[in-house]
Amino acid sequence: MAMSSMPSSSSSASMSGMDHGSMPGMDHGSTGMTMVFFTATDTPLYSTAFTPHTTGQYAGICVFLIALAFIFRGLIALRCNALTLWAMWRRRQDTRILLREPVNERLAKLADRPWRINEAAAIAVLDVILVGVGYLLMLAVMTMNVGYFMSVLGGTFLGSFIVGRWTGAAVVH
């Protein structure tokens, strides 16, 4: 079906409640929709209910985004070390007093073992949480608000600075 044969009323009806001309950062010139960063302090984040009305509320949302980006970096570090942490937890459950193998060799054997459903489910849940938090951060950046963008960058820096050594080479490169 060609684009010209589509009824124009269906596309205008689906966007009838949206006034794109009043959205900050968007210019509907002759070259199409151009998006630029802007510095408004009343930009909604995720929903209209999450719209700051004062400078303090805007600062609170920026602190929230810093914390969310920090949590994202912490979750990446947790995910990179999930199997080793699982092996360490299993070792702590071992009630034997004398172990014949050194701790490092035992942890290596525990981390390199066959697939188990409970471990796979825990890692899958962690991956879903990572994707969800990543998308929330992406949506914050896509508002094109400079404060939100800088907050996400600042939280990413802070998280990498504090827990970056546990993320592993795969995430860094």
From TrEMBL:
Family: Belongs to the copper transporter (Ctr) (TC 1.A.56) family. SLC31A subfamily.
GO molecular function: copper ion transmembrane transporter activity
Cell compartment(s), UniProt: Membrane
Keywords annotated in UniProt: Copper, Copper transport, Ion transport, Membrane, Transmembrane, Transmembrane helix, Transport
Membrane topology: Multi-pass membrane protein
A Pfam family reported for this protein in Swiss-Prot or TrEMBL: Ctr
Transmembrane segments: 58-89, 120-142, 148-172
UniProt-recorded name of the protein: Copper transport protein
Region annotated Disordered, chain positions: 1-23
PANTHER family named in the record: HIGH-AFFINITY COPPER TRANSPORTER CTRA2, SOLUTE CARRIER FAMILY 31 COPPER TRANSPORTERS
Chief location bin: membrane
